[in-house]
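Quick start: what a row looks like.
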Amino acid sequence: YMLATDVADYLVGKGMPFREAHAVVGKLVRHAVALDKPLLGLSLDELKAFSPKFDRDVFEISVATSIAARDVPGGTAPRRVEEALKNAVETLRSEA
C-alpha cells in the first residue's frame, strides 16, 4: 500500500487536515486488505463511503505520479535521481 501517503496528500489537497486524512487512509487500507484489493482497486463509491472528498481524479494517482511528485533534492523524481547519480559519480572520481 505504498500509495497510501499519496492518497492522504490527495485528501489534504481537497481541504482535509492531514491528521484526519491519515486516519481515513488507515481505515481504507484496512478495508482494502480485508478485501485483498489494492488501495486504488476500490471503487469510487467505496472510497466515498470513507470520505465524500474523493472524486474520480483520485484514480490519477499511480506509482509514476508518486515518484514524479517527489521533485526535491534527494527525492525520487527522475531528474533528482539523475542529479544524485551524477553527484555520486563525481564523488567517487574525486576520491579515486
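That is the whole record. The mean pLDDT is 93. Residues 18-35 form the longest helix (18 residues).
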